[in-house]
Amino acid sequence: MTSPSAAPALAQAARRVYVEALVKGSAAVPAALVEALQQRLLKPAEPLKIRAWRDTLAALQQHGATWQMGVITRLRRLSKSQDPLGPPTAGRPAKPLSLVEDDTIEREILASRLALSIQGDAQWQLTDMRTRMQVLEGHPDLDPEDKLHPAVMARLWVDAWREADLGHVDWQQLQDVLHHEFGHWMGSAYHLTNRWLLEQGVLPDVDLRPFIVRSVGINTGVQLGGSFLESTNRRTPEFESGGAAQLSASRPGSGPGKLHASASTPQRAAGAGSPQSQQAFQVLEQLHEVLQRQMPSLAQVMAQPVPAGGPEVTPPPTAASLTPRLQAVIQRAQGALQRPPSAEGSGTAVLEEMRARSQAFKQVLKQAAGTPEERATIEIVAMMFQSILQDDRLPATVRVWFARLQMPVLRVAVAEPDFFAANDHPARLLIDRMGACVLGFDSADAVGDVLEREIKRVVQVVEAYPDTGRRVFQTVLTEFEQFLSNFFEKENPLSRKGVSLAQQVEQRETLAIQYTIELRKMLADMPVDESLRDFLFQVWADVLAVTAVREGSQAEVTRLMKRAAADLIWSAGAKGSPEERAEVIRRLPVLLKTLRDGMSHAGIAPKKQDEHIRRLNNTLAAAFTAKAAPIPRERLEELMDRLQTLESMLPGLSDIDLDEGLLRDISGHETEGLEVVGEGGSPPSPAMLAWARELPVGSWYRLQFRGRSETVQLAWAGARHQLLLFVSPQGRAVLFPLQRLAAFLQASLMQPAQDESVTVKATRDALARLESDPEQLLR
Q1: pTM
Q2: Of 41, 75, 77, 58, whose CA–CA distance to 166 is shortest?
Q3: Which candidate, 368, 327, 366, 369, places its Cα nearest to that of 233?
């Protein structure tokens, strides 16, 4: 047993051992990075990637030694500095508020992601070392700036990288290798430090993983290494006298509440929104009724309206706050769920172990709860996650990661009881969005490694910020949706081509609509024949769009097509003098050839071109007989100038009211690799249109189209959801305009692959168990 007088010296010596281990381990890192790049260059890849890898390799070979020396210099500097001997937060003056530079934010992001690469055995080595250092120093936890923290070392790596003239692009190219090497580097140092501490006789047996910060609600008199139940099953006098009373005082006094419907979630109103939204509302309402009978105080808190302003707003003051005792137990339970399962082999055995851990901790959590409302919340969340772990629609590997969200969700549910009332709560949405992307697979092999890695990253980020409430869920939800867009557009080989083709169609259609609107404005008060207007709006606007997309808006051929529009308008005006008629005759062959070239460029069939030319000839014949109205020369010159600068006046899609007159038939865009839906179903109702706009990218559906019934995934949605692309597991891409998709939904030709979302099913299963035994909430 270490004597109290020797403990501080041992702690300082342990830090020196730790730093020396890092110094020695740093020598192998640059070589590992170089080797990883060289291995990549031996494999076939896209030319741009190969060029980027070569640039990074050259930079690393030139500056890698400088980076390593920068790391060692900083480590030596840390070794000479003394860590604070007082409590981590004692007497520390608050930093003044100031603006943060973008470079600092980018540095913090890179460092935080690097620190999160500490996992597995390295994480437990850190936990053991942290426990032993607490015993030596008598502090509740390490100082936030202690060199033992992975975040401090991660910032050291990033700072040394930048000072060595290695750029952000180089870091991104090597990010996965850097994360792996950092985890190995830190894990080795933790292991060597723990071994040295064991040799000094410091806490040979560590049972508490991860180490829990002691607080008012925990009995600190229990000896380290005692049972988990023993250390959490007792309340301190301070908790007995104040904690529960304060929590009870935060509850509303009396009166039954009703399930609220916030302004931000109109789909909660009965009869509105998609069938899934209505179904979710009904399930949450049933849960509210059960709670109103069994736990009226919790039901009343759930009924409090959500403040306007979105998910970043602070929860209502009536929301329960986590007691210190419950916080500590949740932290321990989280550590147990993070610990690698001992089961080997199939995912089923791992799931059974995770379910057993979750069930065991439920009773411990309920014993640590300070109020009946907390115990009821713990019970419902546990039931929901037991259901998620048993949901066979989800691959087993994904369910293991979902299990680790139980404690973060419990924190939010205790602090924000509207989790049980609002189907749009970020925590619910996150689980549903990730679940919807992997539902419907026949086997776990169908889940791509990229998607599973992103789910893993999301879970680890949520775990890393336990005290931020719904904000961390909202943040990672946004990140996950951005990941999906990038995944289907660039990384998924089944959808990549289809998304590219759909984006080209959208760009062309957007420009055509914008050109049509601007041409309408230009010709609003000009005496132009109606048949000529129709040609310009319906045909030539598309020609201009296609030419601008393929050649560029300022290309010579695009300017030629704009001049053709002006010449056509001038030619269609009344020609009273012989000179004007002779000029029209002289220009006409070139004009007609330009018109045909433009229509051919836009993919219009020759037969259709002949029809358009015939109508234009009739319009020009009317001009020769002076039956058409004359167009003043100054107006024509103004029109020509405006056509040449047309792109600068185009409205944004957000400013356009897309009426039926602007919506175009896109069936002509069908090409190899892209099927376009141009017919099917009846005119959709407003409710069906609203449902079609709600469909999230990544969700799965059953589609009946062209005599085939297959499962498809929504891979891309254009601006304002006017175009949506679905891709089958075989790579078949089907593009829907919004109106046609709504018609298919209305006719049940397109149906969701899942009858209800992951959290709605979990809530329904919890309801069934509560209805069979309502007393579970009170036990």
Answers
A1: 0.56
A2: 58
A3: 368
Average pLDDT (243-256) is: 35
Q: How far apart are CA 201 and CA 409, in angstroms?
A: 39
Which DSSP string corresponds to 61-115? Answer: HHHHHHHHHHHHHHHHHHHHSPPP-S-TTTTPPPPPP----HHHHHHHHHHHHHH
Query: Cα dist. 343→350, 352, 724 in Å?
Result: 5, 9, 43
Q: Please, what's the b/e burial string for 374-399 (b: 16 or more CB within 10 A of its CB; e: otherwise)?
A: bbbbbbbbbbbbbbbbebeebbbbbb
Instruction: Answer yes or no: are the C-beta atoms of 295 and 373 closer than 8 Å.
Output: yes
CA R_g for the chain: 33
Checking if the pLDDT of 430 tops 90, the result is: yes
CA distance 736 to 677: 5
Q: Which is it for the CA torsion 719, 725, 731, 732, positive or negative?
A: negative
Q: What band does 101 get if pLDDT is binned at 50, 70 and 90?
A: low
Task: Quote the CA–CA distance of 281 and 606 in Å, as a whole number.
Answer: 55
Q: How many CB atoms lie within 10 A of CB 611?
A: 11
Please report, for residues 207, 512, 604, 648, 674, the alpha-carbon distance to residue 542 in angstroms, rounded to integers and kept in the order given: 72, 5, 10, 18, 20
Query: How many residues are given for the chain?
Result: 779
Which sign does the torsion angle of CA 405, 408, 410, 412 carry? Answer: negative
pLDDT of residue 17: 92
pLDDT in tens, 625-654: 655 566 677 777 777 777 766 655 555 444
CB neighbour class for 456 (10 Å; exposed up to 12, middle 13-18, buried from 19): middle
Cβ neighbours, 10 Å, residue 292: 19
DSSP string, 558-596: HHHHHHHHHHHHHHHS---SHHHHHHHHHHHHHHHHHHH
List of residues 6+ apart from 745 with CB closer than 8 A: 684, 688, 691, 692, 751
Which position has the higher pLDDT, 430 or 237? 430
